[in-house]
C-alpha cells in the first residue's frame, strides 16, 4: 500500500505554511480599511514627517499589522520549498482575496432585514447596512491596486531571494530575507498607492504619493528588520520538525 500523502511531514508543513500565509494575506486586505495612529497606539509623543513638500503623522492601515507576517512566511516557504512553492501560494492568495471581495460585495447588495436595522438603531448605530458596506465595500481601485502590488511584489521577492541565495549559499539567511523584502516592498508600497490614489478617483499629487509611499516603505522595512529573529526561530523549529536530513534535502531542492 502507498503511504497516505499527509503522512509526509514536508507535505503537512507546506499546507500549514500556505494556510497561515493565505489567511494573513486575505485578512490584511479586509482589515486594511481601518487607518490607525501609531503614536496614539504606542502612547508616545506625536511625530510629524516632512517629505517631498508634504507633512503628516504616522498613520497606517491596519493591514500593516499582518503584512510583516506575510513577508516572513514568504521567506520561510522560499527557504524550504523554493520558487515554485511561493508562486503557487501567491496565486492561491490572490484568488482567495478576489473571491472574498466578490462575496463581500454580494453580501452588501443583499436587502437588510428590518429587525436587523432596528436592532442597530436601538444600540446607537445609525445604520448597520451603511456600516457594513463601509467596512467591507472597499473601492475597486484600492482592491485592484493592492492585488496587483501584492502579486508583483511576491514575484520580485522570490527572484531576489534566490539571486542572493545563489551568491551566499546556506549562509546569511537574514541577508536574503531582508534583501528580498527590501526590493519587493519598494515596488509593492509604491504600486498599490499609485494605482489606488494617483490613477484612481482621488488623483493624489505626485508629491503626496511619494511621501506616503516612502513612509509606508520605511515602516515595512523596520518591521522586517525587527522580525529577523523570528525567521531564524521558524527555521530552527522546522528543521527540528522535519529532521536535519530532510530539512537539508528540502533546502537543497529549493535552491536548485
Automatic annotation (TrEMBL):
GO terms, molecular function: transmembrane transporter activity
Bilayer topology annotation: Multi-pass membrane protein
Superkingdom of origin organism: Bacteria
Record's GO cellular component terms: plasma membrane
Chain segments annotated as transmembrane: 12-37, 57-77, 89-111, 131-152, 173-197, 217-234
Name of one Pfam family that matches: Vut_1
Function according to Swiss-Prot or TrEMBL: Involved in the import of queuosine (Q) precursors, required for Q precursor salvage.
Protein name, as recorded: Probable queuosine precursor transporter
Native species: Lysobacter dokdonensis DS-58
